[in-house]
Amino acid sequence: MTAPRTDDGDGRTADERRGDGDERTGSPSSATAATDPLLRVENLHKSYGAEEVLRGVSLEIDRGDVEVLVGPSGSGKSTLLQCLNCLTEIDSGHIYLGDTEVTASDTDPNEIRQQIGMVFQDINLFAHLTARKNITLGLRKVRGMSADAARERADSELDRVGLADQADSYPAQLSGGQKQRVGIARALAMDPEVMLFDEPTSALDPELSNEVLTVMDELVDEGMTMVVVTHEMRFARGAASGITFLADGQIVERGPPERLFENPSHERTAQFFENISHDHD
Amino acid sequence: MTEGTDVTTATERDPVAGTESRPTARDRLRSSFDRAGHLLAVFAGIVFWGWLLTRWLYDWVFARLGIGPGAGEAFLSPAPFEALAASLSSAAGSFGPLGVPIGWLASAADAAALGVEIGPALATGAWYTVLLTLSSLTLGFCIAVPLAILRVYGGPVRWLALAYTELIRGTPLLAQLFVLYYGLPLSAWLNDFSVVGRGFVPGYAFWIAILGFTINGSAYQAEYIRGALETVDEGQLTAARAIGLSKFEGIRHVVLPQTLRYAIPAWTNELVYLIKYSSLAGFITVPELYYRGNDIASSTLEYTSIFGLLAIVYLGLVLSATNVMGRVERHVAVPGLGGAEGRQQEATE
């Protein structure tokens, strides 16, 4: 099912990593990962004009964690993801990926983006390229892979998301769910340390959402570090290692899904989950 | 005829398709008209380009080797057409009012005789027109793409592109040509190149005209490309940057390939304009198509027939240009991108 991913940062295949379970201190190579979070956000501020979208957000995400960001619209979830990926400039604060400060002035944002995969709400497949070429573009131009190697890698990623037979289809010929799966494959092909999902299923019918969520569930099983903005509470309950509730640009509450769903400590959080469950039932 | 019956039997074998698409007599008539029109267009194209290419090849190569009537001389003699015109017009006179259509035929034969006579001059003129148009369009395109990118993504320096575009689009092309030709010492500078104006290389006026049309065309093309750039969804560039491409690489590999597909119809328009606008080069003594025609007309005073023939040559060039660009558009068409897909489906039906 999974292609061997030997150049995975920690030098192990996904299957080996899954075997580790929670004992991440087991092997020497991942000892640092246990002590240092993979992704660290410190006191992040971001404004669009007069409107302050993020007001001092701090967050730590360990390797292998699946953090689900929830919150009302306009709470700053998507902006936070864009800041993590340097797609938006921040006003103040710090972001670290491993030992690298993402927000340092001498850090090349293109290098950071290679290590962080991003999946968009509006999918954004390259409209003029086939599914396969959507994936090979980054491999060829960013990684400098040969045409054959890139093609092989692209095909194995498409196979991974169950779209081996659609390699030569153009985005306009794919369903929404298929497009989003190609979008995930495109991000995965770059061997990211972290995958960011910005409402990956919001633009899709419930039926099509499921095929995307299945792929995401598989990624969770493989031990991928993920930060997911979503309203899919089923995914949050089943896959999240932590849930962060944001409102008005600040983290209101953070904790394991069981506690936040069953016993939130803030009225605001309880209210939000109440509203969501009404919407979805 | 046989093809028509084939279609009928094919649809009868397939009852489901038959109910939907059994061709009516009107459809068959229309499709046979379409076929005839298509054949006629192909035939006209072959005659037109066959004549031009033969003429050019002959004037450059065979005439220089001393074969045939000599460069710029007609292959055929206009005498038979003139004789035909004379006998037709005398016949027209003897038929009274019924002779009017015969008189038209006489005029046509007259025009044909004139066509044979001035054909070589028009072919040479057409060579300059084609060369001028194609090189200016290509060079203008090379300036227009960076210009449009600067205009859309340039940030603080985008006003540079705006100023250039508005200055060039806001002043008459003829004035620009005059400034380049009379106002600047370009001719003296170009004459220092010993190859200019010798042998196959056209004189300096031609090079100045290319410069003028390149500058002018680049401003118009930049606007077309800018429009197309803005059509491409912003998310495309975001997605390109998200996989680690720089902004420039994203524009180069993701935004531009889509932009240029969107820009083809407008670009075709620019090509068509330029074919005819290139006649302004005649005002700075470039011996292109219009210049030749006008030159002959002012000495023979047969303005109507000569400009009629001139129009036919321009029409041939323009129709060829739109045809080629249509093919290019269909060739690079991608499902879901721009309007080419829909038109292509119509074409393949």
TrEMBL record, chain A:
Gene3D superfamilies: P-loop containing nucleotide triphosphate hydrolases. Residues 39-273 form the ABC transporter domain. It is a peripheral membrane protein. Signal peptide: none annotated. Residues 1-25 have a biased composition (Basic and acidic residues). Keywords: Amino-acid transport, ATP-binding, Cell membrane, Membrane, Nucleotide-binding, Transport. One of its GO terms (cellular component) is plasma membrane. CDD domains: ABC_HisP_GlnQ. It holds the Pfam family ABC_tran. Residues 1-38 are annotated as: Disordered. It is found in: Cell membrane. GO terms for molecular function: ABC-type amino acid transporter activity; ATP binding; ATP hydrolysis activity. Belongs to the ABC transporter superfamily. This is Phosphonate-transporting ATPase. It comes from Natrinema altunense (strain JCM 12890 / CGMCC 1.3731 / AJ2).
TrEMBL record, chain B:
It is found in: Cell membrane. It comes from the Archaea. GO terms for biological process: amino acid transport. The chain crosses the membrane at residues 36-58, 126-150, 162-184, 204-222, 271-291, 303-321. This is Polar amino acid ABC transporter inner membrane protein. Gene3D superfamilies: MetI-like (1.10.3720.10). NCBIfam families: HEQRo_perm_3TM. CDD domains: TM_PBP2. One of its GO terms (cellular component) is ATP-binding cassette (ABC) transporter complex. Residues 126-325 form the ABC transmembrane type-1 domain. GO terms for molecular function: transmembrane transporter activity. Residues 1-10 have a biased composition (Polar residues). Signal peptide: none annotated. It is a multi-pass membrane protein. Pfam families: BPD_transp_1 (PF00528). Residues 1-25 are annotated as: Disordered. Belongs to the binding-protein-dependent transport system permease family. Keywords: Amino-acid transport, Cell membrane, Membrane, Transmembrane, Transmembrane helix, Transport.
